[in-house]
Design goal:
Elements (H helix, E strand, L loop, with lengths): L4 H23 L6 E5 L6 H5 L8 E5 L5 E5 L1
Antiparallel strand pairs: 1-3, 2-3
Keywords: Antimicrobial, Disulfide bond, Fungicide, Plant defense, Signal
Organism: Camelina sativa
Family: Belongs to the DEFL family.
Length: 73
């Protein structure tokens, strides 16, 4: 039995809500991140965050219209 179009639309709606909630959680001001300036790659953030590579304590994350910024955990 093939899934109907309404099942497909409901599935897409649920996935988009999950992605939206996750992106809000990343850019939330109450998060554990300390934002330390712009970046292009994760490697750009190691020095800014004061950690040695490879480290999961330095991330390059999207932040509103400012583009990518370093997030130090």
């Amino acid at each position: 039995m093939a899934p109907s179009k309404s099942h497909f639309v409901a599935f897409l709606l649920i996935i988009s809500l999950i992605v939206n909630v996750q992106s809000i959680r990343i850019t939330d001001d109450s998060s554990d991140c300390t934002f330390k300036g712009p970046c292009h790659r994760r490697e750009d953030c190691y020095k800014r965050c004061g950690v040695k590579p490879p480290s999961h304590a330095a991330l390059c994350v999207p932040y509103g219209v400012q583009g990518l910024v370093c997030c130090c955990l």
